Amino acid sequence: MKTAVAHNFHVPLPSGVYSRLRSESERQHKPATQLVKQAVEYWLEEQEKLALHEEIARYAAETAGTSDDLDEQLEVTGVEHLIDSEQKP
């Protein structure tokens, strides 16, 4: 079984950030490196979500008003469904 290769990354921290990290590490009884790893992983996930959102928004803006914007048959079916559901008691 192969083990994942870990890489080290040296990040100089301002004194205030370093102190807060150490305090949180002690409070949670976890190594500071574990907290930093979790924070970086969370940040990367959020960046990926943001990039996906931006890509979808870009695509939507580019296709607005085109035939890719809305399926005409789907629109007709949706409108018919709304009309039918309003007419039922």
Summarize the structure.
With 89 residues, the protein is mostly helical.
Topology (elements, then pairings):
Blueprint: H1 15-28, H2 32-63, H3 72-87
Percent of residues in β-strands: under 5%
Provide the structure class.
mainly alpha
Number of helices: 3
The outline comes out as elongated
Percentage of residues assigned to helices:
55-70%
- What are the segments in which pLDDT stays under 50 over at least 5 consecutive residues? none
Can you offer a commentary on this structure?
The protein has 89 residues and is mostly helical. It has one domain (15-87). The chain contains three helices and no strands. The chain is elongated. The mean pLDDT is 93.
Features of the shown structure:
89 residues, mainly alpha, 70% helix, elongated
